[in-house]
Design goal:
Strand content of chain A: 15-25%
Helix content of chain A: 25-40%
Number of strands of chain A: 15
Oligomer: homotetramer
Number of helices of chain A: 13
Structural class of chain A: alpha/beta
Largest interface: A-B, 37 and 37 residues
């Protein structure tokens, strides 16, 4: 990165927003946080106080109107993303936006178009692409290590379900949780999905079922080539956050397992015990959150396309919407019909 | 087992028949092979010569009519199974029959009924239930180690595709190869499947596609409880025979990996290298082939029900037929409609 | 192996003798057990009854005098080995003898010389050389996979200590238990040891210390090339029989881990649990016991040198004696001084 | 940590000094770097420029005389450690000093005494105690997870040998490289070593042998209880930095393996390939370098004893000297004789 400091404003100081602010301030040489905005000013102040030189504001306009700010990180609630992207684009800021851009495909398209018109970069926060293990798998597929992909398998199980109140407004398991996995399916196989079939149940918490959602699901994707992906999702894996992928092809198979806090085993009369996987997504994906922002900063400095585009965000939403429809209609859904 | 010798006739002296004959003769104290029958007499003679005291015959009737023989192992071609079961039952022999009993559910039902009428035992050769790792998983599920099953995952990939001529008469991937996996899905979750959705492609060999079959498939099963199983099948895994299962439930997850010939790793500048999985099904399932016959002999001696019944054979065929129909009709199929 | 049957007499029908008899009778086509001898005739009868066509005798002379017997397996108590070898050699029988040949190096030399004079084969029962994992490591070293060996590490921990009465007459940990490991050190590095330093303690059972023995020991060996081996021994590993080796060299490292009964893991709130290693040496080394007898039979049929010679037996005893002296004298011992 | 900022001066801006400076500046909230000193002023300037608010000086006195500085990190060359400790103590600064304090035990004692007289804290840079895996093992031993320790095994192999010029002035393999392992042996077993026996060879580079040093060594330690430790050292493991420990005791065994960059395996016709271990010590021990400084800062803030004391530094040097003498004299050395 050039020695010039890139000045970033963070909009939304929730858990992820604070993480992004600290990563920008401490993990990325050449990047500084100029401001943190949150309608809850106290949250903005707390986040800003951890970043040398950052000020706290309640109104995101104060960030967008600041001519010294080069780029914004949007980590506010999903329903504000599309409008903030359009405003930031109009203000000439480069944009990193948390996933999903919006639950409505039309609004996603609008946000993308606004960035194209303004000539600003738009990167979507699919951080898992930057996980060292998953990136190693995708790079291997690209290099032909497994030949032509035939089967892709994505295991994505949360350690603990979110609060029921959150579930109700989340857009449902497919748009909220599996959206990462739909992107991963495209990223790993490096080809497009043409058909989606999903099935699911509320096995963990009947209240999730009563709220019209599922907590356990398997989605089956067909790629254009005839290759097939499966995604299995659960809202609760008691043994920890279970995040694995596997790409099987004509010449071999790349498989990425979970990470554990240590490499220690205890052997005793009961058997051989190992750590459970890293339990919390902020630990599991610690490096990926830094790496996605590093790539964002780099693409601004180098003036290259962002590694995860608005179109990637749109296509993941499309797959999630197809899965949702498949679950309701109990039949496979062609993606082009969504 | 009691000290009394159980006398067994083997019908069909192909690869599996010879294996059964040798296992009966050498691995099971208290069991002897009295005769081996095969329409190709030379094959019968070769198999019989390896078993002390066994005679070779061309006509299976010579086995069925021999009053000193207690039980038969039927390992002839699939199209002969149902008729041989009926004849053996009429002759009062206990029956161990290779899977599948028949590709037609009606004929399977007929064979089962014949055994019930005759009061003879009928065990179907789902040997994988006797694999130490898979049995350990099923036993753990039964003991509640994972709580209520929510997701079952079965990986079943052959190392090498069979000859195309065989593929054409095999009944297709679902009835020929995945039949074991359909049984495994019932065995692991210990509940019944109500709906099947399958998708597949011919990605390995276009001639398999031209013959109307697929070589790569994923089948999604819904159990009565709402739990879900996935089966992924491939006719060719270049890294070896890939046979894994996983049962994920409310209290944990049991997972069974592949076996390797040794426990050795080579660490060098290229990384850490391990053996590929046992390549050949006769090696991989060596212990299970002995154990299923031991259980068969034991159930005769103890006069208890066989551990794998004709009904198990029937239900696996039903699931395979449902998968086949789902593939053709591109929609989920209710098992009760098959 | 040729179709001609090799006729073997087993002398000594204890635990290992019975195992050898059954392996000869059932696992080795072309080999039969003609007789089993044991001074406790009931033990001989029990072992013989499991082998088709074998007779039981009390006096080993009945075996040695039987002209139809080609070879003997000597698995009687250690103090009888040397004399039986000399008698069997005089009777023109090929000989497989359990380790150690004798606790006295002079008597070992005498037994070897008797076999050489008689022109009969003498194989010593270092079965671990035939373990698939350890053989894979040794083969890899021979092929140069690790370059020049620099460090060899042998972990050899029993699951449970033998009875104290046995410990007292066993010759001590080095001659009784570590003798296998001394042979392994020579086998893996494929070069000779010139110096031995041993240290040990009675940490598990003070009565073992009171009996003048140790139950925990580390032995350090220097090879002629300057490469170094460590052997660590324990009479009690509560997590199971721990048998691992590692050869580290200029180009890499080969490492062999333990075997477990299954490939299953249970993941739950406590972590990830795996089986403990195979607990009992007869399970752990099941394949190796068959393979060493197969190799013995083969070297007779082919008239080639046995894969483990009397000299191998002698050199292992020498290393054990050097270790014993080092422990007492608390200094490194040159092997040529033993 | 209290909100008050702890002000630290770093003396010595080599590779480790720069790492410490950056960790203090960016990874430890509540800590700041006030100054970096190095006789090579350019090195000091480079390190200081990366730390907000730090100034660069050539003379360490400028650090020691600065009343606003609370503590110093000494990462200059080993021969300067003892004098700098004495000066820093006299100036009332708390001290974190890289290992070893000195190659001469008398000078180490002098430095420790100076800190005691001045009432300042002295922590020695045995960072490996703060590695999450090794700390987990030590904590488990302390909690009794393995019962009474009986065998400790430390594998410590560098990926690449240092330059020969460095080897010549390093004090030799035991004082330079194995010093960490001697500390680890005390840390893991939590008891003192009474006797040392070492053997070694120059197998990797004959020039190392010509320089009077070894590049391959095994050291055997006896603890007061009779428990035994082995340390195996190599200057070159071509497969990467190999850092493993194992503590075997009466109730079980704790074992810590290597870390790899990813959790990915590639399965293909050649077998199953995994990453080699993290190759470079700065990567392998990244977290431990942060954690040791966090603990140092914490013990100052809390006014508690440092987790690694000057005495720990002294005892590790004693063990290294005993090993060196044992290698020369070819006999076990009592630690109290050093």
């Amino acid at each position: 990165m050039s020695s010039r400091t890139l000045s970033v404003g963070v909009i939304g100081a929730g858990r992820i927003g604070r993480l992004h602010a600290e990563n920008l301030a401490f993990q990325l040489p050449g990047v500084s946080v100029a401001a943190v905005a949150d309608v809850r000013l106290a949250a903005a102040e707390e986040a800003a106080s951890a970043c040398p030189g950052a000020r706290a504001v309640a109104d995101p306009r104060a960030v967008l109107d600041d001519p010294r700010i080069d780029a914004v990180v949007i980590s506010s609630s999903t329903d504000t993303h599309a409008a903030l992207i359009e405003q930031a684009a109009a203000a000439g800021k480069h944009i990193f936006c948390e996933k999903p851009i919006d639950l409505d495909a039309g609004r996603v398209r609008g946000a993308i178009a606004a960035c194209e018109r303004a000539g600003v970069k738009l990167q979507v926060g699919f951080n898992r692409r930057f996980d060292p293990s998953f990136k190693r798998v995708a790079d291997g597929v690209r290099r032909g290590e497994v030949g032509a992909p035939q089967l892709v398998r994505i295991t994505s199980r949360d350690a603990q379900p979110p609060p029921l109140d959150y579930v109700k407004i989340s857009g449902g398991l497919f748009l909220d949780m599996a959206i990462h996995d739909f992107d991963m399916a495209r990223y790993l196989a490096q080809e497009e999905v043409v058909e989606v079939f999903a099935t699911g149940s509320a096995l963990i918490d009947p209240d999730i079922g009563a709220a019209g959602d599922v907590d356990t699901a398997v989605t089956l994707l067909r790629y254009r080539s005839g290759a097939i992906a499966t995604i299995d999702n659960s809202r609760q894996a008691v043994y920890g956050y279970d995040q694995r992928v596997e790409v099987f092809g004509s010449r071999g198979c790349l498989t990425a397992g979970n990470s554990t806090p240590t490499q220690v085993s205890l052997w005793n009369e009961s058997g051989q015990q190992h750590d459970r996987p890293l339990f919390f997504f902020l630990e599991r994906y610690r490096d990926s959150y830094v790496a996605e922002l590093r790539a964002f900063a780099q693409c601004i400095v180098d003036d290259t396309p962002p590694p995860v585009t608005g179109r990637d965000g749109l296509l993941a939403v499309n797959l999630a919407l197809a899965a949702k429809r498949s679950l309701t209609q109990r039949r496979p859904i062609a993606v082009e019909d969504v």
